[in-house]
Each structure stands twice: as C-alpha cells, then as structure tokens.
Structure to design on (166 residues):
C-alpha cells in the first residue's frame, strides 16, 4: 500500500514538474538608453565652452532647406556666449565649406561668423531625428572671424547633443 501511494505521489510530482516547465517565448533584450545631457561643447582656441541650453529647428534660407542648431548659456544677459550652426540640409552626414554657416558670440559680446570658403569648417551630424524632441547629435570644427577679419577663433572638438524644438 505504501508503495502504491509513493508511486502515485511520484507520478503527480512528475506531472506537476512537466507542466510547470513549459517553453517561454524568445527573450528580447530591453534597451534602456540613458538620456544624454543636451548641450553643445567645444574649445574656443584653448578655452573650454559648455552651452547647456540648446535647440535644433528646420529653417529655409531662400529655397534651401536648412537645419539650425543653437546653444547658449542660461543667463545670456551677463554671460553672452552663444552659437548658431546652420547646415544646408536635414540629414545625418558631413557638411563642409559652403554648406556650413556659423554665428558665434564670445563671452565679451563680440560676434564672429564663419567664412564659407574656409576648408577647415566641418560639421558631422551622426543622428538627425526630424520630429518634435527628436535627437540631433554630431561634432564640428569651425573657424570664425569678426566682421573686420582682424580676430579669428578656432572652435574645435565640438560636440552637439540637442533636440528638435518643432
């Protein structure tokens, strides 16, 4: 009798074991992309510049579609640094020479602009999501001059991480 009870208990245990060990659906990885801080940073000659207030937007320059990327400081009244980078296009790729238009204001309030014939000017956009809050990421090296061309700055090691505002 004990043997029969032991055999039935073993059979029930095996049925329960096989029932609980069913095959699951294929697992897919959960990708939690850590949000990057939105900013524009670069070297102004040898001075590190960090602009935490940023935005990207689509613009039209005549009949040309352009992407404008802007960076500034939170207190733009006392601290004047800001930059606007315009590229004549709206996709992730390399932009250079006449495809790059830059206006830069340094900490003293002096304004500079890029020369479209300068071969050093390069903006590389590695990610462009053309939607509200879509990310725009990339890098740049740009030479800018004041209006009289008497002072020139090299904006190098530039990093762009911003979002579309429209």
């Amino acid at each position: 009798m004990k043997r029969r009870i032991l055999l039935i208990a073993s059979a029930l245990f095996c049925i329960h074991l096989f029932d609980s060990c069913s095959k699951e659906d294929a697992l897919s990885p959960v990708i939690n992309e850590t949000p990057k801080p939105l900013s524009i940073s670069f070297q102004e000659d040898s001075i590190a510049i960090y602009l935490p207030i940023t935005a990207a937007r689509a613009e039209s320059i005549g009949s040309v579609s352009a992407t404008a990327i802007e960076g500034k400081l939170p207190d733009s009244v006392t601290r004047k640094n800001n930059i606007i980078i315009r590229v004549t296009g709206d996709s992730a790729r390399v932009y250079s020479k006449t495809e790059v238009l830059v206006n830069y204001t340094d900490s003293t309030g002096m304004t500079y602009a890029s020369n479209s014939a300068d071969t050093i000017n390069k903006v590389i956009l590695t990610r462009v999501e053309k939607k509200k809050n879509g990310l725009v990421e990339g890098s740049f090296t740009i030479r800018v001059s004041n209006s009289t061309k008497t002072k020139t700055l090299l904006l190098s090691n530039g990093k762009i991480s911003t979002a579309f505002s429209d």
